[in-house]
Amino acid sequence: MLALSQVTVVLDGVTIVEDVELTVASGEWVTIIGPNGAGKSTLLRAISGELPYRGSVVIDGDEAGSLKRRERARRVATVAQSPIVPAGMTVLDYALLGRTPHIPVLGRESAADLAAVWDVLGRLDLKRFAGRALPTLSGGERQRVFLARALAQAAPLLLLDEPTSALDVGHQQEVLELVDALRHDHALTVLTTMHDLSAAGEYADRLVLLDRGRRVADGTPPEVLTEQLLSQHYCARLRVIPGEHGPLVVPIRSTPPAAGDRAGPSGSSPRG
Amino acid sequence: MPTDIEVATREGSPELPGVRSAGLRLRWLLGGLAVVVVAALAGIALGPVGLPPQSVAVELLNLLPGVHLNSGLNEREIAIITQLRLPRVALGLLVGAMLALAGGCYQGVFRNPLADPYLLGVAAGAGLGATVAIALRGQPGVGPAVPLYAFVGALGAVALTYLLGAAGGRDRSTSTLILAGIAISSFLAAVQTYLLQRYSDTIREVYSWLLGQLATDGWSDVRMILPYAVITAIVVLALRRELDVLSVGDAEAGSLGLHPARSRLILVIAASLATAAAVAVSGLIGFVGIIVPHVVRLLTGSSYRAILPLSMLYGGAFLVLADLVARTVSAPVELPIGVVTAFLGAPFFVLVLRTTRSVRM
């Protein structure tokens, strides 16, 4: 479905991503993890066509650079980390934007486009919000609307940049479960970036660890989520605990708590 | 143009019959056309010589091929309609439509509610062009044509703005372009001020041009502006759905299959052409380009598929009515139309703001 070979992204003379090899099989869920500044989002944006790159990105058998934008948009749908929320736009109209690559350049949406959007809104339990303006929705509802737009695009490859970073744990779970269910129902291939390592391990088939623009590990969650790899590349003290589906990663405080810290209000209300 | 206006009559989902996708609603389109007809009839019927509106309507029908009705008007009154007031109303409709369309288009392209048709230096360029033309000619009425110079100056200013904005590098963001427009405007205004100082006897004429007027000499101005109006309307209305997509940002628009920079360039060129043509024949008429699209937005929602065509209709009607006030309120002296548009437009806009919830961009 997706094959990257020697992909390098240079922005303003700085190499952000270097010689990355990555393949994602059809129907697979691959999550890119790595510390801040590792180049996760940059790599995703290069794949989606937003940033120029060197090397080769093959989407569904064709070199991405050779595809026309509309054709690429029919193959790859992207949800950015924090998409712009157009103030007056309703949920229905926002989701309809996803049909853009299917609507003739100077044409208008057809009944089939509308039907597809209503179908997606129903699937994501968003029908009751259809007439609401986007800014009136909560973070979790909004994230579902962004997903709806991407699904309306009907592209087989879904790129999600930090889909859960703005959500509480309950809504994180809801969105990830939803993506997983949609992946099975619509035979989607999913490539995401994520900071929450436990959640990444729970849902992805495979993890790719980036550090300073390079791929340093690639494998199943138990292969990548090891205390040795994570402490080396994240500079963090972590404990990896075997979980039901994948390893659970727990950060550990490096210095033992001082006696006063647990003593209650006396330590946190200085006089003066 | 009307063939390019589509009407949204689609139904929503069976469960939610009230929820429909954004687009041009039939009632708003009909309302806009009705306002245009009323404004045109009023603009032709009212003036120093009052003409009954029904007779005016009959005479307008007589202009159609194969129609011969008796309006009861004499030759002189018919001449007033066809040679004085009709060209003036037609010019008002075109200029108002172009300014409102260009303003709405700029607001969408730059995602900025304060954008108006003069954002990229059109006003300063046209002002300088007109000043040069007026200063160059020895006596009134002899020498270069003001509209031509104003037109060239306006387009030249936008081209400079675009070049300067593009010189910022690959990343041609909209704010770079707006800043470039401010720089070019200040520069050209300075040159214009210098010229006015040198040729101080031209100040009055330049000043009256700057304030805007729809004084016409038969149909020549209408003929001059019409091709630009048609081209612009076709291009901008054809791309109005892309403006909706651009509202989610360039990155998203790109991932949806658009070429944001290319769309923006085409839209800016088209809107600038319309503004330059409008300014060339009517001077600087403020307020229409910024107020009309906002009023339409407040009334109909944030989709450019509705805002742009409706802005043309309401902008045209608004300017015709403003012109009617400008030439009748203190007749026989004409007020500058720019004064009237601001005088009527500002309170009306405040009223609309107060009665709706918020400006939704």
3D architecture notes:
The complex is a heterodimer of chains A (272) and B (361). Chain A has 272 residues and is α/β, with parallel strands linked by helices. Helices cover 32% and strands 25% of the residues of chain A. Chain A is built from nine helices and twelve strands. In chain A, the strands form three sheets. In chain A, strands 6-7-8-3-9-10 form a six-stranded mixed sheet, with helices on both faces. Chain A has a four-stranded antiparallel sheet with strand order 2-1-4-5, covered by helices on one side. Chain A starts with a strand and ends in a 21-residue tail after the last strand. The relative contact order of chain A is 0.15. Chain B has 14 helices and no strands. By secondary structure, chain B is mostly helical. The model of chain B is unreliable at 1-14 (pLDDT under 50). The A-B interface holds A 45, 48-50, 69-74, 76-78, 80, 83-84, 86-90, 92-94, 96-98, 100-101, 103, 106, 108-109, 111, 114, 118, 127-128, 130-131, 133, 153 and B 6, 10, 12-13, 15-16, 18-23, 238-239, 241, 244-245, 247-249, 251-252, 254-259, 297, 301-303, 360-361.
